């Protein structure tokens, strides 16, 4: 029975046990990420800043709206909740917690929820929040207790649980020791169940002192790369989004492997994907009558008897030298296996030996896994620092999974970098650059082209210098994808017109012309001849015989009036070519306005009818 069940699988599943998609995340085995926004709804949150700056509540709602929309696009399987504390009204399961308002339960984000959050933004949103929830007494302990119940009510498997507190008050209970103690106790209970508590504190007059209360509530950094508690409050939306973006999603490794540094010396590392091409999601097939999802099943049948075949009834074959080589599945697996999964150190090479044209695909990122093997982080850090100091890269053999072909990786060291706000820009670790095999390298026979003069080269250098700019790949979004998602968003949210997107990939011609000035024309004068017109029509290509001078132009065909009448009577004018018909029109003085064949025939017939 197990053999049959193993056979009945979806069309997209791997039948041969070969290597699947390296980027795919299996939610059935790893679980889903969950995120709860716990927002302070006190009166202080609704006070606008100086010079018309948005209030802390408005900043928070804009950030929540941004996370909701990004979750729908990037990871719609994740669960998100929105809870307000310090409210006048109460709304939560069984209404057991006072001054706690559960605006959204822990569930997948959708169009309805995005609309709800959008209604809480701006001045109108503050008025809606005041009418719906109001501002009342604050009890953070009961709010954390309510969030704990939200996690308990979820029946799905959760891989990562995170709770973010948004507030502009460093003493939420105004010195009430009993409520402070209850909040610290419930925060400790949440952390024991695996919930990570983060503080997204916002700007307040006089500054925000984390040490007064929240330093005992939030979770410590999970590892060295984790962004810890930020002491400076957020005053701008972009800063708040940056901190939330760094916290909201758990970084999943595509593989956990051993890095073998020598005999008996293994270091546990995680393999991460830093860059991946984003594509449009595949369209789901729905049944026409009820719009239910359609699942595809694949079965194999015998061509002669029509009986259903089991996996054990099939074999693999490969044609070689005109002969069919038949193999069992186990034999195919043995042939595919070259080495066990892992990274094996081969040696070290200077960084100048690594060439740009060796790049095959996006690189991997290697980071230590201290939980798997104790001491891995220490050895890994020592190797990283030594490679960085000596400006060398480590050459390794990389096998991702069983039966996958081995590849050569160049491990390039990267030190940790922090910005002015002590937010991590670059994590410490190795970039795994895929290197080509000898079979992958192609020798190109470049054609001999005319070389540019020194004056032309110098002029082009000036043009390049004028058009230089600081390029960041993160500043350019794919306009096709953005337009696709804006159209989907407009349909889901019942918007009349999709949100306009700006295509940053289009060159700014006016600005470029202003920067260049007369340099472009000067370069044209140096390269092109004086009579060159780029907008003019190119001369028609001559036939090879004409270029060689071996073919003479054929004389025009003379046609008598009797011959023309005979063609008209027989109806054979249409068999004549257009050049012959044109010559006949000129010969008999027929004026024509067009050059189409039927127009020429009609003109000749009209001439004979006169």
Describe it for me?
- This protein is of the alpha+beta class.
- It contains 18 helices and 16 strands.
- The strands form 4 sheets. Strands 6-7-11-16-13-12-10 form a 7-stranded mixed β-barrel. Strands 3-2-1-4-5 form a 5-stranded mixed β-sheet, with helices on both faces.
- Strand 4 (158-167), helix 7 and strand 5 form a beta-alpha-beta unit.
- Helix 3 packs antiparallel against helix 4, helix 3 (56-74) crosses helix 8 (237-248) and helix 11 (454-466) runs antiparallel to helix 14 (519-527).
- The N and C termini lie far apart (93 Å).
- Residues 543-560 have a biased composition (Basic and acidic residues).
- Its main location: nucleus.
- Residues 306-452 form the Ku domain.
- Residues 573-608 form the SAP domain.
- One of its GO terms (cellular component) is Ku70:Ku80 complex.
Q: Gyration radius, to the nearest Å?
A: 36 Å
Round the mean pLDDT to the nearest integer and report it. 81
Helical fraction = 25-40%
Gross morphology? extended
- Ranges where pLDDT stays below 50 over 5 or more residues in a row are 1-21, 25-29, 550-555
Structural class, from secondary structure content? Answer: alpha+beta
Which strands sit side by side, in order, in the main sheet?
A: 6-7-11-16-13-12-10
Q: How far is the first residue's CA from the last residue's CA?
A: 93 Å
- Helical segment tally? 18
